[in-house]
């Protein structure tokens, strides 16, 4: 496995230039048989985590009565997994750098697999929720170390871009497959089979992984305990607050307290890192435009896409009155388009560079979201199918290239930190988009209804305001990425 000398914490490594990339062999994007098997194992682990985010959603109405979980408690079937996943990513990414990514990955995989079995067999709600929380903790170790193993196993350039595009496509497919499989398994074998599926998948990956993975680690250093506590607590507060707000709204006191406390702890984390001799996340890394703007772009593309899917689900079922099956088919097409976008991303990136491809994905996603402003109260199904599917394809282009952009030019020793940031941006995006835009949409719809607008027109007006905000954010950040990272690429070429 390729490794390079560690870069001092105070100095940012030099980026890989286009001239260096041009010296790579023409077949440098082709995988060897062993690399194919390695990629299958690593992508399979990420696919299982993505599957876990959605496979249980349609099973909640059945799961609740079986375990004695009331309507308020059902939220925790999802939140118990999301909280540790989003909160411990940076910590486990750093532990992987220090203790060994292979070791941390396999430990996380074993924990995720065992927790899936516990959740499948749990006779009571407390044991089930404990299983979900342990699944999330295992996923927090799996995701950053798995991505770091990809970036350190495949050299920067065509191979890494292709590997990350395959990984991104499979993760996107995992969300879609999870929704479909969740319904099929719940109807035929019961909700416990959704957790059992994850356990079986985990066992299969666990059997293959030790033979294929080589150990990879960064420079050994003392763990930054104050940094670990503040960033974990900060992310925990924000993810809890936003996840709860998605179900209960922003008016609950605990939601506001959690978000404010989370932001305060993250501000303290930055202060702690500035003074730490061995920081969990060196601030020079955040000052790199590729890292900062790459992760900002990732957060935006994920949050805005999940918000669009949520708003379009409301539109299809509440306004057009289509069935859940038809809605599922619409988003099934979206999933296929996402896979196509992930496959095209490396080809586009090889031609124009990852930063410009990232900007293209964001701006294209924004333009197609703007097209949804043409929806009507009684018609618009095909516009949703076409616009959302194409937007999803460009969203995957952005997802793949934000990962490439945010990890490029960094030493192997820092890949755990970099990929932890990448996955943290994705997790925050998943938690951020729906509550913010749904609150905006529902609030404006209420104002319109109070003003005498018919209910259907008011609902559509709220949805369109959410879509408009979505569009503005995407176009603004896409333009920012194009003006900053695109110019840097041009300067490097000269």
Written account of the structure:
The protein is an all-alpha fold and 494 residues long. 80% of the residues lie in helices and 0% in strands. The protein has helices at residues 18-22, 33-54, 60-67, 71-87, 89-99, 101-121, 125-153, 158-188, 192-212, 225-248, 253-275, 283-287, 289-319, 324-352, 354-371, 381-407, 415-450, 455-493. The longest helix has 39 residues, at 455-493. It is globular. The chain starts with 17 loop residues before the first helix and ends with a helix.
Q: What would a concise description of this structure say?
A:
With 494 residues, this protein is an all-alpha fold. Helices cover 80% and strands 0% of the residues.
Output the structural class: mainly alpha
Order of helices and strands: HHHHHHHHHHHHHHHHHH
Largest sheet data: none
Unreliable stretches: 1-26, 489-494
Strand proportion = under 5%
Count, helices: 18
- Straight-line distance between termini: 32 Å
**What shape does the CA trace take?**
globular
Number of strands: 0
Task: Please tag this protein with its features.
494 residues; mainly alpha; 0% strand
Can you lay out the helices and strands and say which pair or pack?
Elements: H1 18-22, H2 33-54, H3 60-67, H4 71-87, H5 89-99, H6 101-121, H7 125-153, H8 158-188, H9 192-212, H10 225-248, H11 253-275, H12 283-287, H13 289-319, H14 324-352, H15 354-371, H16 381-407, H17 415-450, H18 455-493
Helix pairs in contact: 2-7, 2-8, 2-9, 3-4, 4-7, 4-10, 4-17, 5-6, 5-7, 5-17, 6-7, 6-9, 7-17, 8-14, 8-16, 10-11, 10-17, 13-15, 13-16, 13-17, 13-18, 14-15, 14-16, 15-16, 15-18, 16-17, 17-18
């Amino acid at each position: 496995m390729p490794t390079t000398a560690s870069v001092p914490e105070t100095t940012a490594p030099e980026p890989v230039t286009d001239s260096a990339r041009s010296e790579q062999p023409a077949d440098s994007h082709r995988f060897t048989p062993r690399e194919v098997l390695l990629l299958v194992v690593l992508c399979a682990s990420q696919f299982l985590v993505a599957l876990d985010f959605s496979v249980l959603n349609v099973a909640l109405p059945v799961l609740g009565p079986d375990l004695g979980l009331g309507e308020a408690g059902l939220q925790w079937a999802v939140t118990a997994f999301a909280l540790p996943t989003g909160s411990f990513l940076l910590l486990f990414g750093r532990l992987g750098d220090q203790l060994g990514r292979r070791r941390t990955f396999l430990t996380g995989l074993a924990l995720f697999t065992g927790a899936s079995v516990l959740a499948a067999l749990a006779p009571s709600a407390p044991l089930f929720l404990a299983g979900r929380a342990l699944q999330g903790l295992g996923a927090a170790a799996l995701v950053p170390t798995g991505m770091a193993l990809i970036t350190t196993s495949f050299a920067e350039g065509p191979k890494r871009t292709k590997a990350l595009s395959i990984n991104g496509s499979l993760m996107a497919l995992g969300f879609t497959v999870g929704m479909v499989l969740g319904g099929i398994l719940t109807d035929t074998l019961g909700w416990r089979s959704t957790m059992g599926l994850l356990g079986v998948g985990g066992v299969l990956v666990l059997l293959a992984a030790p033979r294929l993975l080589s150990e990879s680690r960064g420079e050994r250093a003392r763990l930054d305990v104050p940094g670990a506590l503040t960033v974990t607590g900060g992310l925990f507060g924000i993810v809890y607050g936003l996840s709860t707000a998605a179900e209960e709204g922003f008016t609950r006191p605990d939601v506001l307290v959690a978000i404010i406390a989370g932001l305060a702890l993250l501000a303290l984390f930055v202060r702690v890192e500035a003074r730490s001799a061995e920081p969990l996340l060196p601030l020079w890394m955040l000052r790199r435009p590729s890292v900062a703007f790459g992760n900002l772009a990732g957060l935006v593309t994920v949050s805005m896409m999940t918000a669009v899917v949520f708003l379009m689900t409301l539109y299809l079922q509440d306004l057009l009155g289509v069935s859940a099956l038809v809605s599922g088919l619409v988003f099934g097409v979206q999933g296929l388009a996402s896979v196509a976008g992930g496959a095209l991303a490396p080809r586009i990136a090889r031609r124009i560079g990852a930063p410009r491809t990232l900007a293209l994905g964001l701006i294209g996603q924004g333009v197609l979201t703007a097209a949804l402003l043409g929806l009507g109260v009684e018609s618009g199904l095909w516009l949703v199918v076409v616009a959302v599917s194409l937007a999803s394809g460009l969203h995957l282009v952005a997802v793949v290239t934000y990962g490439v952009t945010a990890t490029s030019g960094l030493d192997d020793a820092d890949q755990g930190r970099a990929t932890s940031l990448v996955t943290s941006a994705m997790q925050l995006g998943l938690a951020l988009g729906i509550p913010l835009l749904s609150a905006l949409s529902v609030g404006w719809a209420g104002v319109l209804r109070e003003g005498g607008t018919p209910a259907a027109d008011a609902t559509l007006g709220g949805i369109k305001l959410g879509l408009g905000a979505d569009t503005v954010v995407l176009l603004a950040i896409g333009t920012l990425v194009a003006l900053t990272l695109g110019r840097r690429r041009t300067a490097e070429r000269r």
